[in-house]
């Protein structure tokens, strides 16, 4: 099971490290390895949340998540997306953006690729922060059979009876970020980016609701569409998690190729394999608080992302917060299983906030 799930990631790691060595020598290999380790260690909450959606997808879509999904993560999010952001913000052609990126200028020097990407960070953080905050709010404002932080989750679930409360919270958050944290001249940019993040979340969620099978076996034809929107949901979620990491990687290296290899080819592939492993081992069924811990980690990450619009927050801080929530949730699950052995491994209803979930 382990080798079958992680074998592809080990192979991609070997290919990536070899490519990094041939491209940039021992230094490139070392930096790619460091970035890969950081991506995996700081993205466990991403894997847990991914698993809550992926467990309802059939093996074909799980394999697609490990193949096409990795291609999107490497080429799309870790390579093409930063080029697109720089090209739009600097109003330059794709060819010019690529040429600027390959120049590998010092990110602290105005006009370099890293500098321009850092300047676009408020918009990136607003989009990703609002998307993740919407996901978190939909989770905590929903009544569930199992609660972890019951003293807090139950009152929040009662508040969730107010219609569209998640949307209201997201709009208030991005408004505060835009007018209180945004650098001079970027208020409108932050506001628009945050609204786009909210619209993206609502749209993907709504499409998933439309195409979600009824569960009575009569809508099998729609399962493919539902699976597609589940896949789309996972890719947007991965993008929201990776925004800050891509920008922060320039503090380690200004080479976009090494960043793509480290964060994408190595890091993202292992995060995806870990997601599938959690699904196949039914880890979320056995340790029922893991999803709760991951969702609270997402809430913390969303707040920290919005804070980075006005303040510098080291990526390691966001990573440690996520690991902390996951670790405490895991220990809480172990203690729960020891107190109630008969409930160990019991499958609880999915609490993912209306993510598009196809039938098997």
How many distinct domains? 1
- The helix/strand order is HHHHHHHHHHHHHH
* Beta-strand share of residues: under 5%
Helical proportion, percent range? over 70%
Residue stretches low in confidence (pLDDT < 50, at least 5 long) are 216-222, 345-360
Rounded Rg: 20 Å
Number of strands: 0
The shape, in one word, is: globular
How far apart the termini lie comes to: 21 Å
Biggest sheet layout: none
Global mean pLDDT: 82
Q: Which structural class do you get from the secondary structure elements?
A: mainly alpha
Helical stretch tally: 14
Structural summary, described in words:
- It contains 14 helices and no strands.
- The chain is an all-alpha fold and 360 residues long.
- It has one domain.
- Helix 3 packs across helix 4.
- The longest helix has 40 residues.
- The two termini are 21 Å apart.
Short description:
The protein is mainly α and 360 residues long. It has one domain. It is built from 14 helices and no strands.
């Amino acid at each position: 099971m382990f080798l079958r799930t992680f074998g592809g990631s080990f192979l991609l790691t070997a290919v990536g490290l070899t490519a990094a060595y041939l491209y940039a020598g021992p230094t490139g290999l070392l930096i790619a390895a460091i970035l890969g380790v950081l991506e995996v260690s700081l993205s466990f909450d991403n894997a847990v949340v991914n698993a809550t959606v992926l467990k309802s997808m059939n093996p074909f879509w799980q394999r697609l998540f490990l193949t096409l999904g990795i291609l999107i993560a490497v080429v799309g999010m870790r390579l093409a997306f930063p080029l697109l952001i720089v090209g739009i913000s600097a109003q330059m052609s794709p060819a010019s953006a690529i040429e600027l990126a390959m120049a590998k200028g010092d990110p602290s020097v105005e006009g370099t690729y890293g500098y321009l990407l850092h300047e676009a960070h408020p918009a990136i953080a607003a989009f990703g922060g609002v998307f993740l905050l919407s996901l978190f709010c939909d989770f905590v404002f929903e009544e569930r059979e199992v609660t972890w932080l019951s003293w807090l989750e139950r009152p929040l679930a009662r508040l969730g009876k107010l219609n569209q409360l998640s949307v209201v919270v997201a709009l208030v958050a991005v408004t505060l970020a835009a007018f209180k944290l945004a650098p001079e001249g970027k208020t409108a940019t932050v506001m628009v980016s945050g609204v786009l993040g909210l619209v993206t979340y609502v749209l993907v969620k709504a499409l998933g609701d439309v195409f979600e099978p009824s569960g009575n076996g009569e809508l099998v034809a729609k399962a493919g569409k539902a699976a597609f929107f589940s896949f789309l949901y996972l890719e947007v979620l991965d993008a929201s998690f990776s925004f800050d990491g891509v920008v922060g990687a320039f503090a380690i290296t200004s080479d976009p190729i090494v960043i793509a290899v480290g964060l994408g080819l190595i890091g993202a592939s292992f995060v995806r394999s870990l997601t599938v492993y959690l699904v196949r081992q039914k880890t979320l069924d056995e340790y029922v608080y893991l999803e709760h811990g991951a969702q609270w980690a997402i809430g913390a990450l969303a707040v920290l992302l919005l804070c980075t619009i006005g303040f510098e927050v080291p990526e390691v801080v966001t990573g440690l917060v996520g690991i902390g929530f996951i670790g405490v949730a895991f220990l809480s699950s172990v203690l729960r299983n020891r107190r109630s052995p008969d409930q160990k491994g019991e499958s609880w209803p999915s609490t993912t906030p209306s993510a598009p979930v196809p039938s098997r």
